[in-house]
Design a protein that fits this description.
mainly alpha; 2 strands; two-stranded antiparallel sheet; single chain
């Protein structure tokens, strides 16, 4: 393939842009990791159980603590909150936990 001189510079510019984008992604991951660790520290400070920093966020068992109090503590500590999810076990998970058996739906 023949390339004019201007095209060569454009290719160099695109390679430089790709390098910048890669550096930005690495910086974003580093910030997320730092933020996840900070969030985990706040959750641990609240006395929550099973605290861990995972996938750019943090996870903990709330117990009796209200979700809005957790978010308030995170924000007060300077941790940016982009989302907050309360996960609850399904009815089947609760049933299996109580009885040790699953549902038999085979009829």
């Amino acid at each position: 393939m023949l390339a004019r001189r201007g095209d060569e510079r454009r290719e160099d510019g695109l390679a430089g842009f790709a390098g910048l984008a890669r550096g930005a992604a690495e910086g974003a991951r580093e910030r997320l990791d730092r933020s996840a660790r900070a969030a985990a520290q706040v959750l641990g400070g609240l006395g929550l159980d099973e605290v861990s920093a995972v996938d750019g966020g943090a996870h903990a068992v709330l117990g009796p603590m209200l979700p809005e109090h957790v978010v308030e503590a995170l924000v007060a500590a300077g941790v940016g909150v982009r989302g907050f999810t309360v996960e609850r076990p399904s009815l089947e998970d609760v049933f299996v936990g109580l009885t040790g058996e699953g549902f038999d739906v085979s009829g």
